[in-house]
Amino acid sequence: MDFLILVFAHLLADYPLQGEFLAKMKGKNFIALCSHAGIWTGTVLIAAHLIGYSVDLLDVLILFTVHALADYLKAKPIGFYKKLDPLGMGLFIDQSIHILQIIIFMLFMSEKIS
């Protein structure tokens, strides 16, 4: 259930809370990218808090940085993303990175608890 809550928070922040402006600008403007990554990180951290996870500053920085980097690579596009359809395989890889990030975050949180 925790996984579904965090995925819901991710989807909420990555789509409706992002908005069209940030979606278009995050590959062109550092402030837009950081704004989106901050909204995403904050939304996921609120969900994590409601689940009962205790996060520290390092957790926040890692979540923010990984999300911002993944989104920047897709939005710019940089590297192998240049060859991918942004709404096809590009989106699939981007979302896979974010889901993997949530899974790794949950594993680290379970290590902190035990």
Automatic annotation (TrEMBL):
Residues annotated as transmembrane = 29-50, 87-108
- List, alphabetically, the Pfam families matched: DUF3307 (PF11750)
Top-level taxon: Bacteria
Q: Which UniProt keywords apply?
A: Membrane, Transmembrane, Transmembrane helix
Q: Which InterPro entries match?
A: Phage_phiKZ_Orf197
Q: What is this protein called?
A: DUF3307 domain-containing protein
